[in-house]
Amino acid sequence: MEHYLVGLSAETQLFYTQVAQCAQLPLEQVLSDVLFRLAGELSLEALARTERE
Asked: Residue 9 in 3-state DSSP?
């Protein structure tokens, strides 16, 4: 598995730290899940845009 360094603003870090605490998950897992979901949503949008054109 590859590892990447991602910069977060202080506000973003605080938000996702609180989400991780509420979900009782490691911050790294929450960020990984969020990025994976975003990648899926962006892929679907790109596919829909291609089909319209």
From this structure: coil
CA torsion sign for 11, 7, 5, 41 is positive
- Dist. CA 16–CA 8, nearest whole Å: 10
1-53: pLDDT as tens digits: 888 899 999 999 999 999 999 999 999 999 999 999 999 999 999 999 888 87
Q: What is the pTM of this model?
A: 0.81
Q: Is the distance from CB of 8 to CB of 16 less than 8 angstroms? A: yes
Which residues, other chains included, contact 23 with Cβ-Cβ below 8 Å and sequence gap of 6+?
30
Distances (CA, A) of 37 to 5, 27, 31, 32, 52: 18, 15, 10, 9, 23
